[in-house]
Automatic annotation (TrEMBL):
PROSITE patterns from the UniProt entry: HTH_MARR_2
Pfam families: MarR_2
GO biological process: response to stress
Family matches, as InterPro entries: HTH_MarR-typ (IPR000835), MarR/SlyA-like (IPR039422), WH-like_DNA-bd_sf (IPR036388), WH_DNA-bd_sf (IPR036390)
Top-rank lineage group of the source organism: Bacteria
Protein name: MarR family transcriptional regulator
Example GO molecular function: DNA-binding transcription factor activity
Location of the HTH marR-type domain: 4-140
Length: 154
């Protein structure tokens, strides 16, 4: 049985391969929908409820407001999203995924979601807790690394 160090090394080596496979999958889904991977990422952020704020979406995607506006224009032409008035402040806009296209997106993601769900179902509570902690910590670490890279270019 591998020791902790060997397992940590195996995980460190497996992570880039997992990320690469996931990127290839997302790129294939984007191609199928006729959008760029960045547009698909934006759609996922909106559809999953992360945010519907154009300013926050631009920040999460690492885009200027001008670049995000062009991205949003393309997404509207592809009928993936629409701009709607903010119910709390009608001077502001929100981005909403078009329900008629979400069924198509769900169908494209269903096989991978099913397979990953089957793998997660094999994990016990302790393993799932560790996985969530790793993913959450990894997200924060990646955010800090992005900020550090941005600081180095300014």
């Amino acid at each position: 049985m591998p020791d902790q160090r060997e397992l940590a090394t195996a995980a460190t080596l497996a992570l880039p391969r997992f990320i690469s496979a996931t990127v290839r999958f997302h790129t294939t889904v984007a191609d199928r929908l006729g959008v760029t991977p960045a547009e698909l990422h934006c759609l996922q952020l909106v559809h999953s409820g992360v945010t519907d704020s154009p300013t926050e979406l631009a920040r999460l995607l690492g885009l200027t407001t001008g670049a995000f506006t062009r991205l949003l224009d393309r997404m509207e032409r592809a009928r993936l999203v629409e701009r709607v008035p903010d119910p709390a402040d009608r001077r502001r806009l929100r981005v909403r995924a078009r329900p008629d296209r979400m069924a198509e997106l769900t169908d494209l993601y269903a096989p991978l979601a099913h397979q990953l769900g089957a793998q997660l179902a094999k994990f016990d509570r302790r393993q799932l807790t560790a996985l969530v902690a790793f993913l959450t910590g990894g997200e924060a670490a990646a955010g800090r690394a992005v900020a550090q890279l941005h600081q180095g270019t300014e």
